[in-house]
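Rotation project, supervised by the postdoc (A.L.). Task for the rotation student: set up a whole-complex structure prediction and record inputs and outputs verbatim in this book. Inputs entered:
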Amino acid sequence: MAPAPTSESRRAALVRRALEEHESGLVGYARSLLGDLDLAQDVVQDTFLRLYEQEEGKVDESLKAWLFTVCRNRCLDFLRRRRRTVDFNEELLLQACSPGPDPSEAMERQEAGSEVMRVLERLPENQREVIRLKFQADLSYKEIAAVTGLSVSNVGFLIHTGLKRLRSLLAHRRTALQ
Amino acid sequence: MNPDPMDVRLTSHALGELSPEEARLLERQLREDPAARERVEETRALSEMLIFGFACEEAELTPERRRQVLDRRGSMLCHPAREARLSALVLGELRPVQAAAIRARLSTDAPSRQLAEELQEVAQELRAAFATQPADRLTSSQRFRILNAAAAVPPPRPRPSRSRQSPPGRPVWPQRMRLTLSAAAVLLTGAFFAGSQWGGPARQQRAETPPAAPGNTPAGDRQSEFARLLLEETSRRWAFPSLPLALVEAEEPAAAALEAPEAPAQLLPPSARPSVSLESLQLQEPLPMALQIEASTRPASGAGRYSLTWGTQGPAAAAGLPWPHLTGEYFFPAARMPQAWMPSGLGQDSFSLARRCVRDYATVPPPELVRAEEFVNHFDYPAPVPQPGHTLSLEVDGAPCPWAPQRALVRVTVSAPPPPRTQPLRLTLVVPLVNTWESERAQFLLRQGLQSLLPSLREEDSLAILVTGLAEGVVLEPTSPRDASSITRAVEQWHQGGRRAAAEAPEAARALMRSHWEEGALNRLVVVSDGTSAPDGFSWPGEAGIERCLLHLAATAAPSFPGPVWQADSTAEAARVFREKVSRPEQVVADRCEVRVRFNSQQVQSWRPVGFDSQPATRQAPSPQRWLGGDQTTVLYEIVPAAPSQPSGAWLAVTAEYESPDGRLQRLTDEWSGPTASLRESSASCRLAAAAASFALVLRESPDSVPLRLAQIQSILPESPVDQHGLDEEFRWLLETTASARRGRR
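Outputs recorded:
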């Protein structure tokens, strides 16, 4: 008879599952908040490490919302800290190291996709965030409300307003390009 | 002040707002008070005038808008909260009963139905857009750390409710791990030979089951898990030759594509089955790791051996540049990958570093320092005048490829011509001399740059120079360029006298700047650094109207500064900076710019950008680019032509989309229909770019560079100068000197 899984192995399994299912969504979300892939990766790593500290069963049911909530809070902590201390040298170093996106990466971005993404950047930050959580991370209104601290109806209103604005910006852009 | 209650009553009465009883009582009073009666009449007259005035205003809706309002009577669109349910409906957020009710309502509510359909389309576009975005992931080392942290993170302890979480424990990491991953070789080779087993289901299984490891020991688990993560990471970060093909294909369901008949021979001969091995791997604390990957194809393929160095070791690390080094050959098939996105704002450090190696140390630069794309962009190519209404220009030309004449080399250059300066220039140069300025070269470059600036100054401009530190203070009071002799004398003759401390430089510079400051002029204070220290004290808060810039001479890495930073490490670069930067305003001429190159698979079998094979660890998402006047970016694409039986149309089309300063969307397009018969027949700019790329490949020891000799590269260069500042002449000198250094090394 196989030995019962230990608490440690259960936690490890939970983290592995979380990593497999939500790594990409979390890094993309953190990146959209922080505007920097490296920082986003650090925050997401910390989020997953925090998951080890949770008691199994407590976060299992709402794993996705828990991960995005912790990730969001860590991002906001970072942004608050950064507002206080801007390390100019580090910024410059990053700029100096970055040659810009390479063609092979950009090639993966389809034309239509990049158009929508560009227009998305023109929405207000709160609308952009809930739309990313909905479409990129596939969270429900309820989960988005849990992550952002907004009411469910507020989330619905923000998403609706954002979609309408996107529709109008896309139509305007396409008309202009014709 | 409170209004008189009687006044209020009179106004109310005039406007008919009193009750009948109150009105009767007031009327009785008014009979005895003619003045009050008159005030009531005045108020009534004013009221009638207002009513008439408002009636005359054009406050009606247009017929179209009236129709829309009437159409929406009873529609869900009349109520914001109800309208928001339409999005909830298309996103599947409503309970079935609610959804059914709204759907029933939509059958009679045409405006809402139309909005719901449009929202559905936007939602689909968003889903598709996010689905085509490359997935952001953690680095392999981060994933490894997370997955192996179970033992290191203490188990959760019961906490009193509402207490704050304690910070997570950091995993214990060995001080130094040195792993030889023969396991990785087994894993990879086995995986590759499994062929189509690397499909979707197999991948799913892999995700849940750690790959088998030799000995099934914890250490083995760790090694194989690390190998898997490492391979995922490398395949994600770099697209590269036989090694990456094996890795990339292992990640994709279409594993058989390598051996498919349509796979271009240049990618890999069908007989070639790469056996990939990680020959050495070093993992160090602290992260990031340093690693070396050696990969080789089977001898039957005739292909070479490739290596990738990434991390903090090797010559690149010695130079303080953690750039990865990759050699090899890779192409993108145009049929599957027809589009490239062109970056902007490429750096020039690589050329400067290479020049410094050759010029100052008489040595050939290490390959890790060489970036072909930066070599190409070191030069300014003459740009065509933008089309009417445009602020950018686009130029596409090409020729046979110097290192592979059966292929073509295409140059795409996007330029933003500098806007003319309309305001006078008030320029103050501050030269805080410190000990390192004893190096004559920085001073020489400064003097050369100033000499090249003088002819471009106008009569209404003025120039002042302050030298502090080891020298004598103000050496040139604000002076008009008409007095060229004074300027030249000051530039040529300042000397070290030690009368003013360097710490006083900021305040002295500020005072000098203000002595010839003029409203509406380009009031610019340029701090000249010798490249060894960052000048302090120039961040004056609240100082309006003075633009502060940093000019970094005789250096290749600029320190931080709260304003534009330029650098120059050669005479030609100094001339360029002084002519192009010092005397011109920085002005955005194009915003949200995106340049795409689309290859026609009828004409182009496969393609690749020249360079871009050294990517740092930081990857930023493509963001809309902003172009300043004077910016220019050139990218070379190497093209393998399609079989001659199928030619049709242009080889490639380039599209640039941007917003001009007045907010209009602009689109520029150009096509390219094939190379000239020989390189010598191509444009001078194309030849210069091709020579720069060839030189980079030679220095980089790329397998492509085998047929190239430095003397051949010299012959590629056009006879007459292309770069207006003389950078191509300097390049010619660099080629000759490098050839000497190579001979010396042998």
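Student's summary: Chain A touches chain B through 80 residues (CB under 8 Å).
Supervisor addendum: Residues 88 and 94 of chain A are 10 Å apart (CA to CA).
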